[in-house]
């Protein structure tokens, strides 16, 4: 029985180029790969748990996690090839076949894998950073061998190929664990005391718990940036904490709410779009006569009474020429016919 097992184990499955693959060698290689995969999973899982509990050096732990996982798998692969009976020095025989495979369709996979290695070692974009791409914005939670996973604040996972982060434009809001200054626009009605607006908004911004303490280089400020159609346009410039920067929508909403409440308490009016329309005359008529033409005759006055009203007097010398034109009866026959039809 033992002899039969030995013969079965040494039985050649495939021979080519001086290389002989046996059943025993293939089984040993499979066991080595399975053990390497298990060890890689245990190592990466343990380091990941340590990284999640750590408050510092998380980037170094993530780098160690990836290097340990890839290193154990690669070492296990080489050991499996050697156990299967392949002479590692003779792998040049397969170089042509590997090159053809890369040319036929694996170049994309290799490109993404190499891009992932660049992302891990370059560290311009790291796990935990809050980034913004053309069509995605969120925190990087994982850099894999093929793609990077970005999670938005709405808990939506976006899979981005690694090469996009290398070749495309990426805005990193928290590079090197730093924060950024944000601009919160708001407006007040014309006539408001600008100094009072500034002091009121600054007090509200400083009272928010995620506003960083002010330093000489990082101060809360209020800028007057323009004159709008309905009021004065201001901007609050403030430095929030890094955690607040990673939630920009909620952060802007919090500051906007605080500004609105502070302005209300101070009695400072917040403008709203409005348009005042003043009609001085219509087709040479003013006041009640103009309302009569527009079909809005004043109460207590009939059309007959309106028709008995004498024509308006000519404008006094020195008045606006455009006003004189509007007060002068129309000389257009079409207009005369329309007006006479309305009077009937």
Which features would summarize this protein structure in a list?
five-stranded antiparallel beta sheet, about 350 residues, alpha+beta, three-stranded antiparallel beta sheet, elongated
| Distinct helical segment count | 12
Please state the overall shape, judged from the principal axes of the Cα atoms: elongated
Q: Going across the major beta sheet, what is the strand order? A: 6-5-4-3-7
Largest sheet: 5 strands, antiparallel
Structural category: alpha+beta
What proportion of the residues form beta strands (DSSP E)?
A: 15-25%
Q: N-to-C SSE series?
A: HEEHHHEEEEHEEHEEHHHHHH
- Mean of residue pLDDT values: 75
Rg for CA atoms:
39 Å
How many individual β-strands? 10
Question: What would you say this structure looks like, in words?
Answer:
By secondary structure, the chain is of the alpha+beta class. The protein contains 12 helices and 10 strands. It has helices at residues 2-9, 23-53, 58-83, 95-122, 162-167, 194-207, 242-245, 248-266, 287-293, 303-307, 321-327, 333-343; strands spanning 12-16, 19-22, 130-132, 137-143, 147-151, 157-161, 171-172, 182-189, 221-227, 231-238. The strands form 3 sheets. A 5-stranded antiparallel beta sheet has the order 6-5-4-3-7. Strands 8-10-9 form a 3-stranded antiparallel beta sheet.
């Amino acid at each position: 029985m033992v002899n039969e097992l030995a013969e079965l184990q040494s039985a050649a499955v495939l021979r080519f180029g001086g290389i002989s693959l046996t059943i025993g060698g293939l089984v040993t290689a499979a066991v080595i790969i399975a053990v390497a995969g298990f060890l890689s999973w245990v190592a990466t899982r343990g380091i990941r748990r340590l990284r999640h509990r750590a408050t510092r050096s998380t980037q170094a732990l993530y780098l160690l996690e990836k290097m340990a996982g890839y290193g154990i798998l690669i070492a296990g692969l080489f050991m499996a090839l050697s156990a299967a009976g392949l002479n590692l020095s003779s792998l040049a025989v397969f170089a042509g076949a590997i090159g053809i495979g890369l040319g036929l369709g694996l170049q994309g996979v290799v490109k993404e894998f190499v891009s992932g290695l660049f992302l891990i070692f370059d560290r311009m974009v790291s796990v935990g950073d809050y980034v913004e791409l053309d069509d995605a914005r969120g925190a990087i939670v994982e850099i894999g061998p093929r793609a990077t996973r970005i999670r938005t604040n709405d808990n939506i996972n976006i899979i981005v190929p690694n090469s996009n982060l290398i070749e495309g434009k990426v805005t990193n809001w928290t590079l090197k664990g730093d924060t950024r200054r944000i601009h919160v626009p708001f407006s007040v009605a014309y006539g408001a005391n600008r100094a009072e607006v500034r002091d009121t908004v600054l007090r509200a911004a400083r009272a928010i718990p995620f506003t960083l303490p002010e330093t000489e280089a990082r101060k809360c400020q209020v800028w007057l940036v323009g004159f709008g159609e309905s009021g004065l346009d201001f901007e609050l410039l403030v430095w929030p904490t890094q955690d607040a920067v990673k939630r920009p929508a909620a952060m802007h909403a919090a500051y906007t709410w605080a500004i609105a409440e502070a302005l209300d308490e101070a009695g400072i009016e917040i403008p709203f779009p409005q348009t005042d329309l003043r009609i001085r005359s219509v087709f040479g008529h003013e006041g009640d006569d103009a309302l009569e033409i527009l079909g809005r005759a004043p109460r207590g006055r009939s059309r007959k009474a309106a028709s008995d009203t004498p024509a308006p007097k000519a404008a006094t010398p020195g008045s606006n020429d455009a006003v004189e034109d509007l007060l002068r009866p129309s000389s257009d026959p079409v207009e005369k016919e329309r007006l006479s039809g309305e009077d009937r």
